[in-house]
């Protein structure tokens, strides 16, 4: 019996090693390419370890006037920051309302809201584009930021599930102390919702940070482009030969905020995923 358990664990460990190697190898190759010269990155078969580590590639990425990576990074940070703030605040307000109030038609409204998750983005893309055109918001950050302040169906669902786990006695004690409904939301529900709020913040940040279609639709000035647009332009006809080493440097810089955010909020993120499924 012991031999079977040991053999099973050995096979499972081997499978984990193979899967880990398969998933991490593109990351290693990305870092390796980022530190290569232009001539070395065109070699075939490719080399995994650069002959000389070209750290100046990162400096060139920020100083290249054609790429303007610093402006791209700044624009993405601004849009992602306000998107996270808007999504967290608006989704938390709506989720608290669905959790606390038990009026007639509440379940129907909640089902209608959840059903919007089944709508593909192309179905609402044209009406949104026409709306923002009429509002004269084209070539600005407003179409990418303002919708976040009206909530997200998926984030509202996650937060509502968490708010449902808070005991009614908590709100009763708030009423006894003379708290208004807003104070109970702001001073009682939100401070206890750290894991769920961290989950919503990470999801909204990653979605905004990686969004390519939205900026392509609404932005036309190069000084307002975001990272996804700039990185896509690096492999277009803008360059005679795509600077893959600089593109890999850009990919590393683009990944760093997401990795850092997840590393900082990892504990609360995993708690939020678990707790939102508990009723």
TrEMBL record:
It is a multi-pass membrane protein. The chain crosses the membrane at residues 12-35, 77-98, 110-132, 144-163, 184-209, 244-265. PANTHER family: ABC TRANSPORTER PERMEASE PROTEIN MG189-RELATED-RELATED, ABC TRANSPORTER PERMEASE PROTEIN YESQ-RELATED. Its main location: membrane. SUPFAM superfamilies: MetI-like. Belongs to the binding-protein-dependent transport system permease family. GO terms for biological process: transmembrane transport. It comes from the Bacteria. One of its GO terms (cellular component) is plasma membrane. PROSITE patterns: ABC_TM1. Pfam families: BPD_transp_1. InterPro entries: MetI-like, MetI-like_sf. Residues 73-265 form the ABC transmembrane type-1 domain. Keywords: ATP-binding, Cell membrane, Membrane, Nucleotide-binding, Transmembrane, Transmembrane helix, Transport. One of its GO terms (molecular function) is ATP binding. It is found in: Cell membrane. This is Sugar ABC transporter ATP-binding protein.
